[in-house]
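Person: Show me a sequence?

Helper:
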Amino acid sequence: MSTFIAILLSAATVFMILGIMRKARQYHATPAPLKIPVTPAPKSTGGVIIRMAKEIVFFNALFRASKWTWLFGWLFHVSLVLAFVRHTRYIIDPDGLFGFMMPVLNLWIVQTAGQYAAFGMIIGLAGLLARRFFVARVRYISSPSDYLMLVLIMAIAISGFFMSFVSGYAIDIVAMKVFMLGILNFDLQMLPESNALLIHLVLVAALGFVLPISKLLHIPGVFYAPTRNQVDNPREKRHIADWAKPLDKTRNDYPELVAAREANKEKA
């Protein structure tokens, strides 16, 4: 079973990273031919950076759109970040390249915040799932996959909650770290015996496979949203997409325009 889980986690991680890179490349290659920042918009690059930071950290646009959705969504994402930071201790070798991070990761406040983040994740996901059921306009546009994605992530959070707070489900975290470092160092070790851990890891691997091919992959999208990352200066500076620049240099040479100019000369 240890070998199976190690291969499954490795494959899911590689698939997820490559999928995110592919999606980011797709976003980057998508043309943005129009200047369409949502107003009021910043008129400088510095202002855009501040706006993007506020969107990424505080979800400003969502806050203005729906307070309840913002509350549950922000709670879930913040809790997810805290849980992720706590889990990084399992893949960082104290004697390795990132070993300098261990004193910070081992701080009581970091570990406690990450542990209790399970409550925030479950509450946030429950609110977002309830929104799919009880808000008519959201229910109308929801597909089965929308519900399944929320249920999958909630199952991951609940299984983690059991291992942290329910007696009889706790695992040997030292053995777990040895197992994870063994995967990274290509030196496979034994996985701690725990049904809850096994379920948790299989669900995490499933999420890794699903993430790059589902609408959950909105992680890099915010950085490429033209309504957020553009400076509001259409009058001061002409906006032209990179792919259109070569065409712009030869636009006066189009046969139709040449013919029109010749016709005007003859009339004159």
User: Anything to note?
Assistant: The mean pLDDT is 92. The CA atoms of residues 131 and 137 lie 10 Å apart.
